[in-house]
Q: What sequence folds into this?
């Protein structure tokens, strides 16, 4: 599943990011590396969302959300 | 003996770096979360005991790759300039993420000092940072500061003064207890802050050996160079030119990044106590401000509140200005009489300059409140939320939420708004944003709204004026939408923006910013509006036969009469109005000045002035509907020359600048005519 | 006499303002809000 399928209020672990190199590295620099936990704080119907990664809040659009492959995480 | 030290300020965006820089240099630097604001490096100087520090503020960056201008610039600066010490400013309350840059800076090899900013927030939250262990693990001095509360500033500079010659503190203490024993040849932990896996360390050594034996590459920091090659950094790989494909079989970028983060996790484990678990206030606020249902209404509500204050508080303060203007008027008139000045000069000064400039100056309170409100919103951190809230709407227009930020800037002044469109990557999106931003009502148009709304709408003045902002946004969005339909191309502009923690706006920052805007306004009054008023006075008092008593025989009237018929369908078919609108090319406030000069109103913003003007206008059949249409026309038609010049510069083509002008004039005419025609039916 | 001085001052100031504005626009600094920290002004 990707972040785009995720639910508000839940945490997910990042498996892979399939974006162009530049965007991928940018996300990694912001802390979204493989294995990181991402919390979805708010999510819109079109897929754009606000997430918390390593203690920092980001907002991104559905394009990015759809490119981050994740799995569910069972802790808070 | 005075020693000069060059100190660079580096750090993530939103970590308070510029506030800290300000605190030392007292310089006027705008503090904002918007992209493209702190792009160039700023310089300042300060004295510390017998040292002279040259301070350089670099743009906010998340890492040191070579993908963006800001990163390349910073990298180049650190490696190639004479900077002696780097101050890495980090937000202590978001340490985990900020450390990524810190590690990269340390790897560059120049002396680094970590300034942990926002320590006051950390304390408030009940978090604790082990200030003994952290410098040990990082191998660099760590100084807690609070730019807001101005604590720790001296200690930081003290550390800078002493750190210059120490390449690295020798008390790096770092163990990997649970990791398997390293097979790598060297014990790097005493020397380097970040130690990678054996595989990578082996490759680093191999590369360095190759570089050294080849001899062509000259660098002060081989390890860093090797790491960059392993990451397949574009700039370095191109520069290197050596074939190392046997060692560098693939890009190790992700591995290196992940290992850095592994180390960061270790640091956080050891050094951060009581990680904040309860939902921060920010999250709570964001639930409302970025909620699906609540986000947009909240935004409109906040906007409405802003303008409410702009009007009510602004009006209350205005009374004093009006009184002052009356005094000045009386005094100058009397003075000129006493000096025996001729009628022409008296008229020029009183009817021209004082009416024109004075009329505009009395709106200063409204402008002041508007900018104060915008600054508060900006500094508190709300503005980035706006990008998110508007993103779904923006994407229907083929733009990302980020495109909305330049538009919001347009509420202040269209010039920086147009410039901010550079933050968008796709040129077509940039162009669309530039074409559409002028519809966002700039602050210079506000005096026109205030004047006419108060003259003709009485108690409904505020909603009438506020509606201009709403109409402006609606037209902007509609125009963007139509353009998008016509030309569906244009890249996907993925929204990616940080939402910083909300904070109580910093008084000093706000004060500096608002004072800047006030000074600009005053300067504009004393220059552009001054000259424009004189020019208009001239146009209105001189005709083909020399000086005229009757304005309708003046040059100005002739000019106005050419255009008046075109404006008639919009209820604006008076030559005076046409002339006033033309004068708005110099600056939108001049429209107000023109009315003052045109109709001989000495204190146009006063109750007496307004009543007088309303009566005169009524005599021409000009009533509330006409006034509303005038406001609409002013909202949508061409902006001032300065803005047009800026638009031309951004669009880089006369054709598109022409399109812009036609678009504005067309919309202005169309909408005001529609409103007038339909309104007249009732 | 006073008239000439006052008139002269006004004319002089106006001319100076126009001169400065033209110079400003030609050098690429388009706006009075354009200061050192304005990104567009220094960016080429």
A:
């Amino acid at each position: 599943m990707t972040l785009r399928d995720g639910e508000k209020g839940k945490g997910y672990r990042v498996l892979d990011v399939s974006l162009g190199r530049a965007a991928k590295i940018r996300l990694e620099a912001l802390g979204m590396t493989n294995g990181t936990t991402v919390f979805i704080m708010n999510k819109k119907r079109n897929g754009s969302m606000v997430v918390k990664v390593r203690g920092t809040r980001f907002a991104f659009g559905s394009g990015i959300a759809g490119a981050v492959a994740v799995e569910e995480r069972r802790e808070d | 003996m005075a020693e000069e030290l060059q100190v660079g300020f580096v750090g993530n965006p939103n970590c308070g770096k510029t506030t800290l820089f300000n605190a030392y240099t007292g310089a006027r630097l705008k503090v904002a979360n918007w992209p493209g604001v702190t792009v160039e490096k700023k310089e300042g100087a300060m004295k510390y005991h017998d040292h002279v520090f040259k301070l350089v503020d670099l743009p906010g960056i998340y890492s040191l790759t070579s993908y963006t201008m800001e990163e390349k610039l910073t990298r180049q600066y650190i490696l190639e300039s004479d900077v002696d010490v780097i101050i890495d400013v980090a937000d202590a309350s978001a340490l985990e993420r900020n450390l990524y840059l810190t590690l990269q800076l340390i790897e560059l090899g120049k002396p680094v000092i970590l300034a942990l900013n926002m320590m006051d927030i950390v304390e408030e939250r009940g978090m604790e940072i082990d200030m003994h262990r952290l410098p040990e693990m990082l191998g660099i001095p760590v100084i807690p500061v609070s730019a807001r509360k101005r604590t720790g500033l001296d200690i930081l500079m003290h550390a800078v003064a002493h750190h210059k010659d120490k390449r690295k503190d020798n008390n790096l203490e770092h163990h990997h207890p649970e990791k398997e024993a390293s097979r790598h040849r060297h014990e790097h932990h005493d020397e380097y802050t970040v130690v990678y896996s054996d595989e990578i360390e082996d490759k680093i050594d191999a590369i360095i050996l190759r570089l050294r034996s080849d001899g062509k590459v000259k660098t002060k920091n081989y390890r860093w160079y090797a790491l960059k090659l392993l990451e397949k950094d574009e700039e370095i790989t191109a520069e290197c030119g050596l074939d190392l494909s046997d060692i560098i079989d693939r890009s190790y970028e992700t591995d290196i990044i992940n290992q850095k983060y592994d180390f960061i996790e270790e640091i956080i484990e050891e050094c951060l106590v009581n990680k904040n678990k309860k939902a921060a206030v920010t999250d709570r606020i964001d639930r409302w401000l970025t909620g699906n249902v609540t986000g947009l209404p909240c935004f409109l509500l906040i906007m409405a509140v802003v303008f409410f204050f702009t009007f009510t508080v602004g009006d209350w303060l205005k009374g004093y200005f009006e009184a002052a203007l009356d005094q000045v008027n009386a005094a100058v008139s009397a003075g000129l009489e006493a000096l025996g000045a001729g009628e022409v000069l008296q008229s020029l000064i009183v009817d021209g300059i004082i009416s024109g400039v004075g009329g505009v100056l009395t709106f200063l309170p409204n402008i002041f409140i508007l900018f104060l409100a915008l600054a508060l919103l900006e500094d508190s951190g709300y503005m980035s939320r706006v990008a998110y809230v508007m993103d779904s709407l923006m994407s229907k227009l083929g733009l990302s939420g980020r495109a909305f930020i330049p538009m919001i800037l347009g509420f202040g002044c269209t010039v920086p708004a147009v410039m901010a469109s550079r933050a968008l990557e796709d040129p077509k999106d940039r162009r669309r944003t530039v074409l559409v931003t002028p519809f966002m009502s700039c602050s210079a148009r506000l005096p026109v709204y205030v004047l006419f709304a108060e003259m003709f709408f009485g108690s409904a003045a505020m909603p009438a004026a506020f509606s201009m902002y709403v109409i402006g946004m609606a037209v902007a969005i509609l125009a963007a939408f139509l353009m998008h339909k016509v030309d569906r191309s244009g890249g996907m502009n993925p929204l990616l923006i940080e939402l910083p923690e909300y904070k109580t706006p910093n008084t000093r920052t706000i004060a500096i910013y608002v004072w800047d805007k006030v000074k600009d306004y005053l300067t504009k009054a004393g220059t552009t509006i001054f000259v424009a008023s004189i020019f208009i006075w001239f146009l209105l008092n001189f005709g083909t036969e020399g000086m005229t008593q009757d304005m309708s025989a003046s040059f100005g009237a002739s000019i106005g009469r050419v255009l008046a018929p075109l404006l008639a369908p919009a209820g604006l078919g008076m030559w005076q109005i046409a002339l006033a609108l033309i004068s708005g090319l110099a600056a939108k406030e001049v429209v107000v000045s023109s009315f003052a000069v045109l109709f001989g109103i000495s204190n146009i913003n006063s109750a007496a002035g307004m009543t007088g003007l309303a009566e005169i206008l009524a005599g021409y059949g000009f009533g509330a509907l006409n006034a509303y249409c005038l406001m609409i026309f002013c909202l949508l038609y061409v902006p001032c020359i300065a803005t047009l010049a800026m638009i031309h510069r951004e669009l880089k083509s006369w054709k598109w600048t022409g399109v812009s002008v036609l678009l504005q004039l067309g919309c202005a005419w169309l909408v005001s005519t529609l409103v007038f025609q339909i309104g007249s039916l009732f | 006499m006073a008239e000439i001085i006052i008139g002269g001052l006004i004319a002089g100031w106006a001319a100076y303002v126009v001169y400065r504005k033209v110079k400003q626009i030609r050098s690429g600094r388009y706006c009075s809000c354009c200061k050192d920290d304005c990104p567009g002004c220094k960016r080429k």
